[in-house]
Amino acid sequence: MCDIVTHNWGVDFNIISPMENLPRILNIHESTINDSRYQWSSEEHGQYKSEETSIFQFTLSGCGAFDDGDNVHRLPSGTAFLTNTMDKHYRYYYPESLTERQVVLWCNFQSSYSMKMVEEINSRFGYIFHLPETTGIIKKLLDLKSLQESYSTMLASENAKLASELLYELIWSKEKENTGNIETVLIEKALQIINTNSNRLYNAGELADKLSISREHLSRVFKRQLGISPYRYIISSKIEMAKMKLRNTSIPAKSISHELGFTSPVQFTNMFKKDSGITPGNYRKIYRGK
Question: From CA 256, how far away is CA 69, in angstroms rounded?
Fold first, then answer.
């Protein structure tokens, strides 16, 4: 009778001078799941390990299943899950109905920072991710097989870079999926209006009217998608345009004020100083070294 799981290869990392808040990958393994008796959850984790970690698992071939407490997700080739190991919502298992053995690439990583990041990723994007095997970070993890050893030493910075790249790649994969959603389209339209009307200083109400939505809804979408209010974005973008003109041209600040739609040079100077801490004139002098 075959084992429930066959461990094909694996590397545990000894990290030189680890830092508490730097994300760190503890290990990377490839395993074959042979039997439907296999399952893993926070309960099983608690029986074997006292220390909580995060786990990333990517299906190379075959198919598994992930229960997030609300839905059961199939995990065919090119699909992954990410979770903190003591998250009570999840259960991973090998479905009884399947006969093809599942081959998975998985790693544990840890730090107070990365575990909070995983919690936020799960809250915002869920637990399931879709990545081709040709994705850069997946190829890097698979390439570790070439080390031909079960134990390897890494610098803290080198290991953290690998862990961070994995997390950022997962976030980016979800952002790509969401590029067609309604809020993203709304933001794109709003930014197009702002950027193509550089001689007008919109307020949030005027921008909302152009988009045929309420000011309150526009503010909520900006907060969710960009993390700032429409007004703050508009002012910041205007100030950045002003800085570019101050650095690269000799156009008087008064004329720049008019070109960017400010009601007066005084309003422009006050907003520039509030945003940058100095006046437009002093900014130009500092940048030009005068």
Answer: 56
